[in-house]
Amino acid sequence: MLTTPVKLWRRQKKVATHIGRVGKILNWTIIRVPPKAFHHEAPYPVVIVEYENRERTIGQLVDFEEGDLKKGKRIVAILRRNFSGDSESVIAYHIKFKPYEKI
Amino acid sequence: MRVNVLGVSTTEFGELWEKSPRALARQAIQGALNDATISSNQIDALFVGNMLSGILGNQANLGSFFAEELGVPVPSYRLEAACASGGVALNAAINSILAGQYETVLVLGIEKMTDSSQDDVTSGLMAAGSDEERMAGVTFPGIYALMAQAYIDEFAVSEETLATISVKNHYHGSLNDKAQFRKTITVEDVMESGKIADPLKLLDCSPISDGASAVIISAKKKGKKPVYITASEVASDTLSLHDRSSFTSISSVVRASKKAYKKAGIKPEEIDIAEIHDCFSIAEAIAVEDLGFSKKGQGAKDIAEGKMTLGKGKVITNPSGGLKACGHPVGATGIKQIVEITQQLRGETDSRQVKNAKIGLTHNVGGSGAIAAIHILRN
Question: Which of A9, A32, A79, B347 is the most buried (most CB within 10 A)?
C-alpha cells in the first residue's frame, strides 16, 4: 500500500543522511490503532524530533524503556526495518529513533 | 462581497449502506433545487468537493459523473483538499461567480466511506498527510493526538476538559435528525472509551460516514428569507505537523479567518454561531482560539463551562453536532456546515435553533491544518 520499489530507491538517499544524527523529543503519542502495514508493531510510540541543527522530523521510538517517552529526551536516528507488503515485496527500511545513551 | 445562498440540502449522515454515491448526490441536489425553487437548467456550473472517490471507489472524473445526476451537461469541476474539499469547492464556486463567469452554481460535497474497510479508509485518509508521516506509521488520530499532548502540557488542561467538547457536540447532535449519532454522552463515556492514540480516545474522534450536501449560490437574490455569504477565504500551510512553529495553533486558520473577518467587516465577537471542524475534540479547542472566540489556552475550558453550548453560550459552536456527532463524510462536511448555518440564519432548525442568530461562520480544515476554508454568512 505505502510504497513501491522505485519510491523506496528514490527515498533511501535521503533516509541515509539521517543515520546517526542526534536530537531531542519535542512531542510524542502512542499509536494503538495503526495503519495496516504496521499492525504487527502496535502499540508503538511516534515522536516529533528536533535535531541539533533545529531541523525536525517524525518517526517511531524503539529500544526504549518506561520513562524515555518524554519531552526533551535525547535520541539518535538509526536505520530499522519498517514494513513490507507481503513475503514477495520489497522490505522497506526507514529511520527510527532510540534513546541516545543506548548507542 | 455578497453571494446569495438560494438553496441548501443535506442527506442524513451515517452508515448508509443502501445508498450509492449517485443516489446520495441525487438526493442532495434535488433537495437544494427544491429549496431554491429553481430547476436544474437554471444551474450554470457544478462544483464537487470530494476526497476519496479515486482512492476508495476507483471512480474519478467526478465533475461529469455528478453532472449526470444534475441532469444538465454544465461545466463541472471536482476539487480535492482532503477534509476541506467541500469548503474549497465552495470557495472556487464563489470566485467563479465573483469573476462574472457564472451566475448560479451548485456545489455538491460528497463522500462514500463505509463501503470500505477501516484499514483502507485509515490509509486513504493518510493520503492527506506527508510521506514522512506515512513512513512513521502515524495516523490522523495520531497527528491530532500530538497536538492534544502539546495542548495539555502547554495549558495544563485535563483530558476530562477536552472530553466535554464531544459531550457538547453529542448533545447538539441529539437534536438533529440528520446526525449520525443522536444520543447524548457523558465525560465518563469518553474517558472509558478505548484509546486510539494517547491521549485521544474513541469518543474524542469523529466517525467514518457516508453523506452528501448541496448548496446553490448565485449573484442573483431570491427567496423570502435571504442568507448571503460575505467572506470566503482559503489559506494553506505545510503538509507535515512537525514542520510548523506551533503545535497548538493552526496558522492556516488564523490567516484565513483574519482575512475573512476583514472582508466581512466584522469582529470575532460578532459571530453568533459557528460550525467548527471538530474531527477530534482537540481540533475544536484549538479552532475556537484561532478564530478569536477564546483566549489562547482557554478554548477547551470555555467549552467545558458551557460558553458554546446551545441555550447557554454567547457563540454556539457546532449546533449540528459537528463532525463528532453529525458525522464526517469528508468531502461533504464543508458543505453541510453551510447548510446548517443557512438553516439556522433562516430560523428553520426547530429544537436546536439558536435564537436571533444573525452572523455565522464555517471552519473547514484539511489534513492536520495544511489547508483551511473559512466562510462568513449573514441574514
Answer: A32
B48, B90 Cβ separation under 8 angstroms: no
CB spacing of A58 vs B194 below 8 angstroms: no
- Cis peptide preceding A43, ω within 30 of 0: yes
Model pLDDT for residues B35-72, shown as the tens digit of each residue: 999 999 999 999 999 999 999 999 999 999 999 999 99
Task: Write the residue in B132, B137, B149 that is nearest to A27 by C-beta.
Answer: B149
Closest CB to A35 among B122, B132, B146 = B122
User: What pLDDT band is residue A91 in, cutting at 50, 70 and 90?
Assistant: confident
Catalytic residue selected from B83, B205, B279, B326? B83
DSSP A51-96: ETTS-EEEEEB-S--TT-SSTT-EEEEEEEEEEESSTTSPEEEEEE
- Residue B279 a catalytic site member: no
Please report, as a single letter, which amino acid is at residue A91.
I
**Grid cell listed for B304:** 467545558
pLDDT at position A4 is 81
Give the integer Cα–Cα distance in Å for B201 and B183. 18
Neighbours of A93 (CB within 10 A): 17
Average pLDDT over residues A92-100: 95
Of B170, B172, B277, B328, which residue is the catalytic one?
B328
Query: pTM score, two decimals?
Result: 0.97
Q: Kindly give the pairing relationship between strand B371-378 and strand B76-79.
A: unpaired
Give the rounded percent of residues in chain A with a pLDDT score beyond 70: 96
- Per DSSP, chain A holds a count of helices (H) and strands (E) of 1, 5
Dihedral of alpha carbons B285, B287, B290, B292, sign = negative
Chain B interface residues facing chain A, Cβ-Cβ under 8 Å?
119-120, 122-123, 126, 131-139, 141-142, 145-146, 149-150, 153, 194-199, 240-243, 247
The radius of gyration of chain B from alpha carbons, rounded to an integer in Å, stands at: 19
